[in-house]
Amino acid sequence: MSKKYVIANFKMNKTDEEVVSYIEKFKEKVKDFNTEIILSVPFVSIKTASLMVKNSNILIAGQNLNENDFGAFTGEINAEMLCSVGASAVLVGHSERRNHFKETDVIINKKIMKGLRSGLISVLCVGETLFDKKNNLTTQVLQRQITECLNSIYANELSHIVIAYEPVWAIGTGVVATKEEIEGAIKTIRMLLTNLYDEKIASKVKVVYGGSINEKNVKEIKSIKGIDGVLVGGASLDEEKFYKIVSEFNEKGTSEKGTKKVSKKKTIEK
Ligand code: 13P
Protein backbone atom coordinates (compact mmCIF):
# COMPACT_ATOMS: atom_id res chain seq x y z
CA MET A 1 0.00 0.00 0.00
CA SER A 2 1.53 3.30 -1.01
CA LYS A 3 1.73 6.22 1.35
CA LYS A 4 -1.05 8.77 1.36
CA TYR A 5 -0.53 12.50 1.21
CA VAL A 6 -2.37 14.78 3.57
CA ILE A 7 -1.55 18.38 2.80
CA ALA A 8 -2.61 21.46 4.75
CA ASN A 9 -2.91 24.84 3.09
CA PHE A 10 -3.07 27.57 5.71
CA LYS A 11 -3.48 30.21 2.97
CA MET A 12 -3.12 33.75 4.43
CA ASN A 13 -3.89 32.65 7.97
CA LYS A 14 -1.89 32.34 11.20
CA THR A 15 0.84 34.49 12.63
CA ASP A 16 4.25 32.99 13.31
CA GLU A 17 3.29 32.50 16.94
CA GLU A 18 0.13 30.66 15.94
CA VAL A 19 2.05 28.40 13.56
CA VAL A 20 4.46 27.52 16.37
CA SER A 21 1.68 26.69 18.79
CA TYR A 22 -0.09 24.57 16.13
CA ILE A 23 3.01 22.54 15.28
CA GLU A 24 3.91 22.02 18.94
CA LYS A 25 0.59 20.24 19.53
CA PHE A 26 0.17 18.60 16.12
CA LYS A 27 3.68 17.14 15.81
CA GLU A 28 3.32 15.09 18.94
CA LYS A 29 -0.02 13.61 17.91
CA VAL A 30 1.14 12.40 14.49
CA LYS A 31 4.62 11.30 15.45
CA ASP A 32 3.99 7.60 14.80
CA PHE A 33 2.03 8.10 11.59
CA ASN A 34 3.44 6.94 8.29
CA THR A 35 1.29 9.33 6.27
CA GLU A 36 3.10 11.94 4.15
CA ILE A 37 2.11 15.13 5.95
CA ILE A 38 2.82 18.52 4.39
CA LEU A 39 2.02 21.85 6.04
CA SER A 40 1.87 24.79 3.62
CA VAL A 41 2.48 27.70 5.94
CA PRO A 42 2.89 31.43 5.21
CA PHE A 43 6.35 32.33 3.86
CA VAL A 44 7.37 34.12 7.05
CA SER A 45 6.90 30.98 9.15
CA ILE A 46 8.70 28.50 6.90
CA LYS A 47 12.04 28.70 8.70
CA THR A 48 10.60 28.35 12.18
CA ALA A 49 8.24 25.58 11.08
CA SER A 50 11.02 23.69 9.28
CA LEU A 51 13.23 23.76 12.35
CA MET A 52 10.34 22.53 14.48
CA VAL A 53 9.61 19.52 12.24
CA LYS A 54 13.22 18.51 11.70
CA ASN A 55 13.58 14.71 12.01
CA SER A 56 9.82 14.28 12.11
CA ASN A 57 7.36 12.93 9.55
CA ILE A 58 6.11 16.41 8.62
CA LEU A 59 7.31 18.43 5.64
CA ILE A 60 6.93 22.17 5.25
CA ALA A 61 5.79 23.77 2.00
CA GLY A 62 5.61 27.27 0.59
CA GLN A 63 2.28 28.33 -0.91
CA ASN A 64 3.82 29.85 -4.02
CA LEU A 65 7.13 30.72 -5.66
CA ASN A 66 8.23 33.09 -8.38
CA GLU A 67 9.18 31.62 -11.74
CA ASN A 68 12.32 33.75 -12.08
CA ASP A 69 15.74 32.99 -10.67
CA PHE A 70 16.37 36.31 -8.90
CA GLY A 71 16.30 40.05 -9.54
CA ALA A 72 13.99 43.05 -9.53
CA PHE A 73 10.72 41.38 -8.52
CA THR A 74 9.79 43.26 -5.36
CA GLY A 75 7.91 41.15 -2.86
CA GLU A 76 8.56 37.85 -4.59
CA ILE A 77 10.26 34.66 -3.33
CA ASN A 78 12.21 32.22 -5.51
CA ALA A 79 12.77 28.47 -5.23
CA GLU A 80 16.27 28.84 -3.83
CA MET A 81 15.00 31.07 -1.03
CA LEU A 82 12.33 28.52 -0.12
CA CYS A 83 14.95 25.79 0.07
CA SER A 84 17.29 27.98 2.07
CA VAL A 85 14.75 28.26 4.89
CA GLY A 86 13.97 24.54 4.90
CA ALA A 87 10.92 24.14 2.64
CA SER A 88 10.66 20.70 1.02
CA ALA A 89 7.63 21.39 -1.14
CA VAL A 90 5.60 24.14 -2.73
CA LEU A 91 1.99 24.60 -3.86
CA VAL A 92 1.79 25.62 -7.49
CA GLY A 93 -1.14 26.86 -9.55
CA HIS A 94 -3.69 27.11 -6.75
CA SER A 95 -6.95 28.49 -8.14
CA GLU A 96 -6.66 31.51 -5.83
CA ARG A 97 -3.30 32.31 -7.50
CA ARG A 98 -4.79 31.71 -10.94
CA ASN A 99 -7.80 33.89 -10.13
CA HIS A 100 -6.49 36.77 -7.98
CA PHE A 101 -2.97 36.94 -9.37
CA LYS A 102 -3.70 35.98 -12.98
CA GLU A 103 -1.30 33.06 -13.09
CA THR A 104 -1.49 31.25 -16.40
CA ASP A 105 -0.62 27.62 -17.14
CA VAL A 106 2.57 28.83 -18.84
CA ILE A 107 3.68 30.69 -15.70
CA ILE A 108 2.70 27.72 -13.53
CA ASN A 109 4.79 25.44 -15.75
CA LYS A 110 7.83 27.69 -15.20
CA LYS A 111 7.20 27.66 -11.45
CA ILE A 112 7.06 23.86 -11.39
CA MET A 113 10.36 23.65 -13.26
CA LYS A 114 12.06 26.06 -10.89
CA GLY A 115 10.70 24.20 -7.89
CA LEU A 116 11.62 20.74 -9.14
CA ARG A 117 15.09 21.70 -10.20
CA SER A 118 15.76 23.22 -6.79
CA GLY A 119 14.69 19.98 -5.11
CA LEU A 120 11.16 20.95 -4.08
CA ILE A 121 8.14 18.65 -4.37
CA SER A 122 5.54 20.54 -6.42
CA VAL A 123 1.89 20.19 -5.53
CA LEU A 124 0.19 21.17 -8.78
CA CYS A 125 -3.41 22.31 -8.31
CA VAL A 126 -5.84 21.85 -11.18
CA GLY A 127 -9.62 21.98 -11.46
CA GLU A 128 -12.57 23.48 -13.23
CA THR A 129 -14.72 26.48 -12.29
CA LEU A 130 -18.48 26.28 -11.78
CA PHE A 131 -18.93 27.74 -15.27
CA ASP A 132 -16.72 24.99 -16.72
CA LYS A 133 -18.64 22.33 -14.80
CA LYS A 134 -22.03 23.65 -15.93
CA ASN A 135 -20.83 23.63 -19.51
CA ASN A 136 -19.34 20.13 -19.38
CA LEU A 137 -15.85 21.51 -19.82
CA THR A 138 -14.14 19.67 -16.95
CA THR A 139 -12.18 17.23 -19.12
CA GLN A 140 -11.18 20.00 -21.51
CA VAL A 141 -9.98 22.23 -18.65
CA LEU A 142 -8.03 19.41 -17.01
CA GLN A 143 -6.48 18.56 -20.35
CA ARG A 144 -5.31 22.13 -20.90
CA GLN A 145 -4.00 22.54 -17.35
CA ILE A 146 -2.19 19.19 -17.17
CA THR A 147 -0.69 19.44 -20.65
CA GLU A 148 0.52 23.04 -20.31
CA CYS A 149 1.61 22.87 -16.68
CA LEU A 150 3.65 19.71 -17.28
CA ASN A 151 5.19 20.89 -20.53
CA SER A 152 8.87 19.80 -20.66
CA ILE A 153 8.63 18.03 -17.31
CA TYR A 154 10.51 14.74 -17.60
CA ALA A 155 9.02 11.42 -16.61
CA ASN A 156 11.54 10.92 -13.82
CA GLU A 157 10.52 14.23 -12.27
CA LEU A 158 6.91 13.14 -11.83
CA SER A 159 7.76 11.32 -8.63
CA HIS A 160 8.23 14.78 -7.16
CA ILE A 161 4.90 16.11 -8.36
CA VAL A 162 1.62 15.66 -6.55
CA ILE A 163 -1.44 16.61 -8.57
CA ALA A 164 -4.27 18.11 -6.54
CA TYR A 165 -7.67 18.01 -8.17
CA GLU A 166 -9.39 21.01 -6.62
CA PRO A 167 -12.61 21.99 -8.38
CA VAL A 168 -12.85 25.75 -7.85
CA TRP A 169 -16.56 25.54 -6.95
CA ALA A 170 -15.73 23.21 -4.04
CA ILE A 171 -13.07 25.41 -2.45
CA GLY A 172 -14.25 27.06 0.75
CA THR A 173 -17.91 26.57 -0.19
CA GLY A 174 -18.83 23.58 1.94
CA VAL A 175 -19.83 21.81 -1.28
CA VAL A 176 -17.73 18.69 -1.74
CA ALA A 177 -17.51 17.06 -5.15
CA THR A 178 -19.32 13.73 -5.28
CA LYS A 179 -17.42 10.45 -5.16
CA GLU A 180 -18.26 9.91 -8.83
CA GLU A 181 -17.01 13.38 -9.80
CA ILE A 182 -13.74 12.91 -7.95
CA GLU A 183 -13.22 9.39 -9.25
CA GLY A 184 -13.97 10.60 -12.78
CA ALA A 185 -11.54 13.51 -12.52
CA ILE A 186 -8.77 11.27 -11.14
CA LYS A 187 -9.34 8.85 -14.01
CA THR A 188 -9.19 11.71 -16.50
CA ILE A 189 -5.96 13.01 -14.95
CA ARG A 190 -4.35 9.54 -15.18
CA MET A 191 -5.57 9.16 -18.75
CA LEU A 192 -4.00 12.51 -19.65
CA LEU A 193 -0.75 11.48 -17.95
CA THR A 194 -0.82 8.21 -19.87
CA ASN A 195 -1.09 10.15 -23.12
CA LEU A 196 1.79 12.43 -22.12
CA TYR A 197 4.02 9.71 -20.64
CA ASP A 198 2.84 6.11 -20.37
CA GLU A 199 0.43 4.05 -18.31
CA LYS A 200 3.00 2.75 -15.85
CA ILE A 201 4.29 6.23 -15.11
CA ALA A 202 0.77 7.66 -14.92
CA SER A 203 -0.30 5.03 -12.40
CA LYS A 204 2.48 6.08 -10.04
CA VAL A 205 1.73 9.81 -9.96
CA LYS A 206 0.11 10.89 -6.70
CA VAL A 207 -3.31 12.45 -7.23
CA VAL A 208 -5.13 14.02 -4.29
CA TYR A 209 -8.45 15.85 -3.90
CA GLY A 210 -9.09 19.25 -2.34
CA GLY A 211 -12.27 21.24 -1.72
CA SER A 212 -14.29 21.50 1.51
CA ILE A 213 -12.69 18.45 3.11
CA ASN A 214 -13.34 18.18 6.81
CA GLU A 215 -13.04 15.63 9.60
CA LYS A 216 -16.59 14.42 8.92
CA ASN A 217 -16.52 13.83 5.16
CA VAL A 218 -12.93 12.58 4.91
CA LYS A 219 -13.85 8.92 5.45
CA GLU A 220 -16.08 8.94 2.37
CA ILE A 221 -13.43 10.73 0.30
CA LYS A 222 -10.77 8.28 1.41
CA SER A 223 -12.79 5.40 -0.01
CA ILE A 224 -12.58 6.81 -3.54
CA LYS A 225 -10.79 4.57 -6.00
CA GLY A 226 -7.38 5.83 -7.05
CA ILE A 227 -7.17 8.68 -4.52
CA ASP A 228 -3.77 9.27 -2.93
CA GLY A 229 -4.78 11.76 -0.27
CA VAL A 230 -6.25 15.20 0.30
CA LEU A 231 -5.38 18.89 0.24
CA VAL A 232 -7.17 20.72 3.02
CA GLY A 233 -7.76 24.44 3.47
CA GLY A 234 -10.20 25.64 6.15
CA ALA A 235 -10.28 22.45 8.23
CA SER A 236 -6.48 22.36 8.41
CA LEU A 237 -6.43 25.57 10.45
CA ASP A 238 -7.63 23.69 13.51
CA GLU A 239 -4.92 21.23 14.52
CA GLU A 240 -7.39 18.86 16.16
CA LYS A 241 -9.57 18.70 13.04
CA PHE A 242 -6.55 18.29 10.80
CA TYR A 243 -5.19 15.57 13.06
CA LYS A 244 -8.49 13.68 12.63
CA ILE A 245 -8.21 14.02 8.86
CA VAL A 246 -4.61 12.78 8.84
CA SER A 247 -5.55 9.88 11.15
CA GLU A 248 -8.01 8.67 8.54
CA PHE A 249 -5.16 8.23 6.04
CA ASN A 250 -2.66 6.72 8.44
CA GLU A 251 -1.92 3.25 7.11
CA LYS A 252 -0.67 1.17 9.99
CA GLY A 253 2.26 -1.05 9.14
CA THR A 254 3.35 0.69 5.92
CA SER A 255 7.09 0.55 5.55
CA GLU A 256 7.47 2.30 2.20
CA LYS A 257 9.73 5.32 2.30
CA GLY A 258 8.31 8.73 1.54
CA THR A 259 9.14 10.96 -1.40
CA LYS A 260 12.71 12.08 -1.26
CA LYS A 261 13.98 15.44 -2.44
CA VAL A 262 15.41 15.56 -5.97
CA SER A 263 19.11 16.22 -5.61
CA LYS A 264 19.81 19.75 -6.77
CA LYS A 265 22.29 19.21 -9.54
CA LYS A 266 20.87 15.96 -10.85
CA THR A 267 20.97 15.60 -14.61
CA ILE A 268 17.47 14.75 -15.70
CA GLU A 269 16.88 12.67 -18.80
CA LYS A 270 13.66 11.68 -20.45
P1 13P B 1 -11.06 24.35 1.66
O1 13P B 1 -10.65 23.05 2.27
O2 13P B 1 -11.20 25.46 2.65
O3 13P B 1 -12.25 24.19 0.76
O4 13P B 1 -9.85 24.80 0.71
C1 13P B 1 -9.31 23.90 -0.17
C2 13P B 1 -8.07 24.48 -0.72
O5 13P B 1 -8.09 25.48 -1.41
C3 13P B 1 -6.81 23.81 -0.37
O6 13P B 1 -5.78 24.28 -1.18
Question: How do you describe this structure in short?
Answer:
The protein is an alpha/beta fold and 270 residues long. The protein has helices at 16-29, 46-53, 79-84, 95-100, 105-117, 130-134, 138-149, 179-196, 199-204, 218-222, 239-249, and strands at 5-9, 36-40, 58-62, 89-92, 121-126, 161-165, 206-210, 229-232. The protein is built from 11 helices and 8 strands.
Report what the structure shows:
The chain is an alpha/beta fold and 270 residues long. It is 39% helix and 14% strand. It has eleven helices and eight strands. Strands 1-2-3-4-5-6-7-8 form an eight-stranded parallel barrel, surrounded by five helices. Helix 5 (105-117) packs across helix 7. The radius of gyration is 17 Å and the shape is globular. The two termini are 27 Å apart.
Mean pLDDT: 93
State the secondary-structure class.
Answer: alpha/beta
Characterize the largest beta sheet: strand count, sense, and whether it forms a barrel. 8 strands, parallel, barrel
Strand ordering within the main sheet: 1-2-3-4-5-6-7-8
Low-confidence stretches: 253-270
- Report the C-alpha radius of gyration, rounded: 17 Å
Elements, N to C (H/E): EHEHEHEHHEHHEHHEHEH
Number of strands: 8
What would the principal axes of the Cα set say about the shape? Answer: globular
Ligand species: 1,3-dihydroxyacetonephosphate
Please work out how many helical segments DSSP would assign: 11
SS strand fraction: 5-15%
Features:
binds 1,3-dihydroxyacetonephosphate; alpha/beta; 39% helix; 11 helices; disordered C terminus; 270 residues
